[in-house]
Design goal:
With about 130 residues, the protein is mainly beta. About 10% of the residues lie in helices and about 50% in strands. It has one helix and nine strands; from the N terminus they run E-E-E-E-E-E-E-E-H-E. It has one helix at about 110-120; strands at about 1-10, 15-25, 40, 50-55, 60-70, 75-85, 90-95, 100-105, 130. It has a nine-stranded mixed beta sheet with strand order 3-4-1-2-5-6-7-8-9, covered by helices on one side. The protein starts with a strand and ends with a strand.
């Protein structure tokens, strides 16, 4: 079981916003709809909005990709993308800032391809990709 956060909230003034969701895919970029086993209401990051914690069972051979984005002043968006395997272990983490995605600690090329596939399917604007080995 993997606990993933689903949230859509914004500040009282409306200048800041937070969005978090997840997608379950295989290595060939095929999405699968997964129903959460349980859903718990949690406190959101900002005042207006709602947040839930889903407990999801990931099928063997599939990956859960969790995306978290914050919109700051002047409409700038930054966030992170985390890839989990079917057992709940973290495979890769990527940071999104200034229209660039930086992969941190991704040793497997297939995980990098999964993230680029998710970004292209969601039509997130990206100018440049960078892989950083730790």
């Amino acid at each position: 079981m993997l606990k993933l956060r689903v949230e859509k909230s914004q500040s009282r003034s409306g200048k800041h916003a937070f969005r978090s969701f997840y997608i379950v895919m295989d290595s060939k970029c095929n999405k699968v709809e997964v129903k959460p086993k349980s859903m718990k209401v949690i406190k959101p990051l900002y005042m207006k909005g709602e947040a839930y914690e889903h407990e999801v069972l990931i099928p063997e051979g599939y990956f859960a990709i969790e995306l978290r984005f914050v919109k700051c002043l002047r409409g700038r968006v930054k966030g992170e993308i985390i890839v989990y395997d079917s057992k709940g272990g973290t495979l890769c983490r990527a940071v999104y800032r200034k229209l660039k995605i930086r992969f941190l600690g991704c040793m497997d090329k297939s995980v990098v391809n999964i993230i680029t596939c998710v970004v292209s399917q969601l039509k997130i604007p990206v100018k440049k990709y960078a892989v950083i080995r730790i």
